[in-house]
């Protein structure tokens, strides 16, 4: 820290301000977390200096002895954590992992069956403006409009009609347990490959708090920075040796050059943390806290899509509380109070994506700080005080948010 502040105070001021923002706000974005000091430290090491194109034992540069060791460690820990035979720890991000996974399975023009972003999918699952929507023939499945759960009859009907090469399950805003076995049944019926994108739930899966995609999925991708609480990055997993070989080729040289070895070291540390018993306790608390938040918000008059949550996140439909309230306004007012959220479209949202009728809330980061169910119920009350007054109470609530942050400091 002193190094940066001495050499470049302009950058240091910004970093310090962000450090302060994180310390004194309640982070409720479902895809974010507070990585451990060890994970963060690893990213500021000399491992960043090295080119290590290729894989352990087969690099295109000299001097990779220690990079081989750290990548092997990361791969072995990832395999142990997710109970699978192969892991590629090099993708720079979740979207990069998906790019390489798609290219390992599909040729340009092949059909992919996925859930659109408007129903909770991720943009890399086929949005027109993303590479996935440009290079592949994307066919959608949907949520049941009443239950807001995956409409498996429709998944099957679409699979039978369009005979996709690949079916994707795993989402960015789906609060319920994913039935991987049911997806695999449909995939087998039409000879498709099943890809599970477990970016959001990876930590829960690793801790046994959500069913594993294995043995059902042929291939799984994830980010490492959400519930898994590692550095920003991606990961690809499989049990299939042929798929594993293609994945390795599609990551490097298919879509990336040199791996971020400092981030791979941080991934190894995060996987090591996730293998410890405390991580299971943490993920159990994440789920308990989400259930407590869902119940409290329902009591305050909000509607939760699908009626609640099974995992770490929920989608709040703001309309039953106040029909004029939008996700965009709610996000800004809550931020004024120091509660950080993101507006999110709800299924069949009549409002456009930059406005929305919903908020997505998650408990991974607050649980890392040590909040438990009673504390979470207080947070629900703070949220309601802000929203019920159209933001008027934000500065009052900000004091309670600050006190809560002081009671539960970030990991240092
Ligand atoms: N897949 C899912 C389901 C996600 O929710 C996300 C990120 O939000 C990604 C992939 C992409 O991850 P990244 O932002 O690291 O590219």
TrEMBL record:
Cofactor entry: pyridoxal 5'-phosphate
Keyword Cell division included in the entry's annotation: no
Subunit relationships: Homodimer.
GO cellular component terms attached to this protein's record: cytosol
Keyword Amino-acid biosynthesis: yes
Residues where N6-(pyridoxal phosphate)lysine is found: 226
Family in the record: Belongs to the SHMT family.
Biological process according to GO: glycine biosynthetic process from serine; methylation; tetrahydrofolate interconversion
Every Serine hydroxymethyltransferase-like domain range: 5-383
The enzyme's E.C. designation: 2.1.2.1
Reaction equation(s) it catalyzes: (6R)-5,10-methylene-5,6,7,8-tetrahydrofolate + glycine + H2O = (6S)-5,6,7,8-tetrahydrofolate + L-serine
Subcellular localization: Cytoplasm
Pfam families to which the protein is assigned, alphabetical: SHMT
Binding site for (6S)-5,6,7,8-tetrahydrofolate: 121-123, 241
GO molecular function: glycine hydroxymethyltransferase activity; methyltransferase activity; pyridoxal phosphate binding
CDD domains per UniProt: SHMT
Residues flagged as site, Plays an important role in substrate specificity: 225
Function: Catalyzes the reversible interconversion of serine and glycine with tetrahydrofolate (THF) serving as the one-carbon carrier. This reaction serves as the major source of one-carbon groups required for the biosynthesis of purines, thymidylate, methionine, and other important biomolecules. Also exhibits THF-independent aldolase activity toward beta-hydroxyamino acids, producing glycine and aldehydes, via a retro-aldol mechanism.
Pathway named in the protein's UniProt entry: One-carbon metabolism; tetrahydrofolate interconversion; Amino-acid biosynthesis; glycine biosynthesis; glycine from L-serine: step 1/1
Protein name per its UniProtKB record: Serine hydroxymethyltransferase
Residue ranges crossing the lipid bilayer per the database entry: none
Source organism of this protein record: Poriferisphaera corsica
Lineage of producing organism: Bacteria, Pseudomonadati, Planctomycetota, Phycisphaerae, Phycisphaerales
Keywords: Amino-acid biosynthesis, Cytoplasm, Methyltransferase, One-carbon metabolism, Pyridoxal phosphate, Transferase
Domain of life: Bacteria
């Amino acid at each position: 820290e002193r190094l940066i502040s001495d050499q470049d105070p302009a950058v240091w001021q910004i970093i310090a301000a962000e450090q302060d923002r994180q310390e004194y706000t309640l982070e409720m974005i479902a895809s974010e977390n507070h990585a451990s000091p060890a994970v963060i430290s690893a990213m500021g090491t000399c491992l960043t200096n090295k080119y290590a194109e290729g894989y352990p034992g087969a690099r295109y540069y000299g001097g990779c002895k220690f990079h081989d060791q750290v990548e092997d460690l990361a791969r072995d820990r990832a395999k142990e954590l997710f109970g699978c035979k192969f892991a590629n720890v090099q993708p720079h991000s979740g979207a990069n992992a998906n790019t390489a996974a798609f290219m390992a399975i599909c040729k340009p023009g092949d059909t992919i069956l996925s859930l659109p972003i408007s129903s909770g999918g991720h943009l890399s699952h086929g949005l027109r403006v993303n590479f996935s929507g440009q290079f592949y023939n994307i066919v959608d499945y949907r949520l049941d409009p009443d239950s807001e759960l995956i409409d498996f009859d429709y998944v099957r009907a679409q699979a039978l009609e369009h005979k996709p090469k690949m079916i994707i399950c795993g989402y960015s805003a789906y609060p319920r347990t994913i039935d991987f076995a049911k997806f695999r049944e449909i995939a087998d019926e039409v000879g498709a490959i099943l890809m599970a994108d477990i970016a959001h739930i990876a930590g829960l899966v690793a801790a046994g708090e959500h069913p594993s995609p294995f043995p059902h999925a042929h291939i799984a991708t994830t980010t490492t920075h959400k519930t898994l609480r590692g550095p920003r990055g991606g990961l690809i997993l499989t049990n299939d040796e042929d798929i594993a070989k293609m994945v390795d080729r599609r990551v490097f040289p298919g879509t990336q050059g040199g791996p971020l070895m400092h981030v791979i070291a941080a991934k190894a540390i995060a996987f090591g943390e996730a293998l410890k018993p405390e991580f299971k306790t943490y993920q159990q608390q994440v789920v308990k806290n989400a259930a407590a938040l869902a119940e409290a918000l329902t009591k305050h008059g909000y509607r939760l899509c699908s009626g609640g949550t099974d995992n770490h996140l929920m989608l709040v439909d703001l309309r039953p509380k106040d029909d004029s309230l939008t996700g965009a306004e709610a996000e800004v007012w809550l931020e004024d109070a120091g509660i950080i959220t993101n507006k999110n479209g709800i299924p069949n949202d009549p409002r456009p994506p930059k406005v929305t009728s919903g908020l997505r809330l998650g408990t991974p980061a607050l649980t890392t700080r040590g909040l438990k169910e009673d504390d979470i119920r207080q947070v629900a009350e703070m949220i309601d005080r802000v929203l019920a007054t159209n933001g008027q109470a934000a500065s009052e609530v900000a004091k309670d948010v600050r006190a809560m942050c002081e009671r539960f400091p970030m990991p240092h």
